[in-house]
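Board notes, transcribed. Complex of a protein with iron/sulfur cluster.
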Amino acid sequence: MTANLLDFDLEGLAAFCERLGEKRFRATQLFRWIHQKGASDFEQMTDLAKSLREKLGASAHVQGLKVVSRHDSADGTVKWLFDVGAGDVIETVFIPEADRGTLCISSQAGCAVGCRFCSTGHQGFSRNLTTGEIVSQLWFAEHFLRQHLGRQERVISNVVMMGMGEPLQNYSQLVPALKVMLDDHGYGLSRRRVTVSTSGVVPMIDRLAKDCPVALAVSLHAPQDALRDNLVPLNKKYPIAELLEACARYQTAAPRDFITFEYCMLDGVNDQPEHAAQLVSLMKTHAIKGLSCKFNLIPFNPFPASGLKRSDMPQVSAFAKILMDAGIVTTVRKTRGDDIDAACGQLAGDVQDRTGVDQRMAAQRQGMLGGIKVVVAKGTNV
Ligand code: SF4
């Protein structure tokens, strides 16, 4: 079997070139062709010696993921479903804003953490994605969007590992993928613009600080352990105090001077004034230990199996005011791509419920989804 070069960071590609009897610097040229120009055909790579192109042709390939479908929202958000085999699909979402283009990437097919408010969590865990499958989402989206938007320059300026899966439970495949994103010969993204979002895998937060300290976001969602145990089951293993201490340690290596805490606003569950007051007290306690925080309040995207409801806006505003009055920087996330179920796991959950039932995908193939522009690719690869 030949090697998929999307599986390698630059160091890995240099080692691969050495195994082919080539100088390590050839890896830089090859890496640029693949990631900066989106090339997958070695014959296109005209500044590589013909002998190297022949060796590559015999021993390697550049293979992205197969696109199942593309969904374009009226607000410019684009969502892709990719086939990762064995009936599993993953999601990738592009969110354009005036000053940035953010790509939300998946790290696993499904997720084992099982957060109550998360559609992916309800689908269960299938498998970890490989480095190549993580990188492919960026590789595909960047070069597709450049072509689609008629742009020469970079379209994606930010990456958030907030799609399907808990990235820190797929650590060995995640770190090389992050290195490809950061590499100046790859996508050249700054550490501040690449965010790993975790539900709180404490030992891996410490490892990430040493191996690849990018921006960190933590899915908190509750101010005390009893409630968080219920919403984010991983809390039983790594309770809030341990998690916040790991965040304070991370901050010494982090590229930003704060950790972002995500808080999904659930009507009557975690959105009451006393919850906000508890959060303020929690953050004050940990500020003494060196933690600086920013809060991102997220409107919940309801899905039937959750039994949960979205907090109404006055409730969200009142909650935000309590945090802000205490000096905590707080933003309320805008919902994007509502018309295409852009929240994590929603569309894949509709496509596949892990019993193999696939009715909605069939409807999409026939272009039957009312009001949603659905573009179904026929086995497209870049
Ligand atoms: S919120 Fe994240 S960690 Fe929790 S179940 Fe969903 S994908 Fe997994």
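The chain has a mean pLDDT of 90. The CA atoms of residues 101 and 156 lie 5 Å apart.
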